[in-house]
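Dear colleagues,

As part of the handover before I leave the project, I'm documenting each prediction I ran so the next person doesn't have to rerun anything. This entry is a single chain, and its sequence is reproduced below.
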Amino acid sequence: VQLQASGGGLAQAGGSLSVSCLASGRTGSIYQMGWFRQAPGKEREFVAGISWWGVNPNYADSVKGRFTISRDNAKNTVYLQMNSLKPEDTAVYYCHANTIANRNYWGQGTLVTVSS
């Protein structure tokens, strides 16, 4: 499984950004996809996840009500729409996939910067 992340960038507090992740390769083995983030000096943390069939989205408490994860089966792509951004959302965002065999795959990170 290969993951290609795109999007992100710079936004002001209260603004919006989106990131997307294109999966390729053995996508039939994917069970769940999602996003993690890592801020400077902090550990990588879970942000949001969704099953490969697009059900059961789940979110970290810190982003509930502000971020929305979705997927497009036809495009093998998972999206993360980020609204009401806060400076503490600033981080490198990583796409993640977990397979039926419980293998983990990571995409390259994409930087999200929120200015106050």
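The chain has a mean pLDDT of 95. The radius of gyration is 13 Å.

All the best with the project,
I.
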